[in-house]
Amino acid sequence: MMLRCLLPVLACLAMHAAATAQEPSQDITPDAEVIVVRAERAGPQLWRVTHPEGEGEVYVFITVPWLPASLEWNERPVASVLEEAGLVLTEFEVNAGAVSTTRLAAMMLRTITFNRSRIMMPRGTTLADRVDAGLAAEFYRASAIAEERNERRRAMRRAARRGGETGPADALLDEPSDSALAERLAALEPGRMHPFFQAMNLIGNAASSVDLQGASAIESQVTRLARRNRVPVRAVQSYDLAVSDISTLLRSVQDFSRETNETCISEAVTFANSDLPTAWMAAQAWARGDVDGLRGLSERRAGLECQRAMERELGGMRTFGGATTADIDYPGIWSAAIGEAVAARGVTLAIVGASGWLAEDGIQARLAAAGYVVEGP
Questions:
Q1: Number of neighbouring beta carbons within 10 Å of residue 133
Q2: Nearest-angstrom CA–CA distance, 44 and 349
Q3: Cα–Cα distance between 101 and 319 in angstroms, integer?
Q4: How many CA within 13 A on the CB side of residue 86?
Q5: Which DSSP helix (H) or strand (E) runs through 348?
Q6: How far apart are CA 163 and CA 150, in angstroms?
Q7: How far apart are CA 11 and CA 320, in angstroms?
Q8: By three-state DSSP, how is residue 10 classified?
C-alpha cells in the first residue's frame, strides 16, 4: 500500500477514516465534482540532471503543497519523458504488507465507528475547553469563512456548467460580507472531534474553498501515466507500516497536551487566515510554469508545526525506525537517489517537492555542489 500526504502518513490515515466516520452535519470533504478549466497552460517545468562521469539522466518534475483542483495541466513534457524512462522516483511510501488499501481503510473505519471516543471529545466538551477561548473563537470564525467560500465555489461551479459568468478565479479569495459571516457563525455547530482532527479538517476545508487540492493528486496522475507506459515506480523513502503506530496515534490524540492542541489549532487558523493566498498564488505559478514565482512561495507547508508538536509527545514511530520525521534528511535522501540514477544508464523521472528542490541548501544546490550538471528553466 502506498500513502502520500503532507501530514505524517499515520496521521493522514487516521484522518481519512475519521472524515469518513464524521457526523453528517460536518461537511469537510471536498466536492468530487470540480470546474475543469481547459485553457492551455504552460504547466510545471522540468529540470535535467546529468554528470560528466555518469551515463544516465534524471528529469525532475516539481510539485507544490497545494495545486489547482480545476486545472487540466499540460502533461505532455512528462509523458514525453516517460516514453523513454526506465524508472519513476516518488517521495514517500508506506508498505502495509499483504493488507490492501481498501482492507486497511475498512479496519480503521470499523475501529473509529465502534470506538468513537478515540476521535471524539466527551459530550458537552467544546474546543474552548481544550485550547484558549480566544483561539477557539478565531478557529470558528476561520471555519465559517471556509464554509462561506465553499458555498461561493459551488455557485461558481454551477454557473460554469450553465455557461454563465463565473468571475475571476481569485474572487474565491475574497472574504465574505460581515452579514453573511455572522449568519454562518450563528449556524455553526462546534465539532466534537479532538482538536488535532478539527485542525486538519480546517486546513482541508480552507484549501478546497479556494479550489486547491493536495499535491498527491498530481503525483497519482503521473504514476498512472508511468504504469500506462509500463515504467516502474519506486519511492526514495519506504517504510513498513507498524499497525501499533496507528493505535498509538489514536490513543494519544485524546491526551495531547493543551500546548500541542493549541499549536495544531493555531497553525490551522494561520493557514486559513493568512497563508491561503500564498498557497493559491504558488498553485497558479506552478500551473503557469513560473519558476521565479514559485521561489519563496512554496516554503510553508500547513501541518508541519502541528506534526512536530505531535511527535514531541509521541516520540519516534516504529514505522520510521524509531525516528521522527525531523530526523529524516530529505535533501540528502533525494540527492543520493538522483545520484544513483544518474550513475546508471537510462532515463529517470523524479517527482520532487518544490521547497526541497528550490531551497538555498536544497536538493538542486547539493547536486550542483557535488559536480552534477543541473539544467532547467
A1: 11
A2: 14
A3: 17
A4: 8
A5: strand 346-353
A6: 20
A7: 13
A8: helix
Cell, residue 318: 516504529
From first to last of its 377 residues, the chain has per-residue pLDDT tens of: 233 343 455 555 555 555 554 443 343 333 433 334 344 456 677 999 999 998 999 999 998 888 888 777 778 889 999 999 999 999 876 665 544 445 555 555 665 556 666 778 888 899 999 999 999 999 999 999 999 999 988 888 888 777 766 666 778 888 888 998 899 999 888 888 899 889 988 998 999 999 998 887 788 888 889 999 999 999 888 766 666 777 777 778 888 999 999 999 999 999 999 999 999 999 988 888 888 888 877 665 656 788 888 888 877 666 667 767 777 788 899 999 999 999 998 999 999 988 889 888 899 999 999 999 999 87
pTM of structure: 0.82
C-alpha grid cell for residue 99? 493488507
Instruction: Evaluate whether 63 touches 4 at the Cβ level (below 8 Å).
Output: no
- The single-letter DSSP state of residue 71 is B
- Measure CA of the first residue to CA of the last residue in the chain; give whole Å: 35
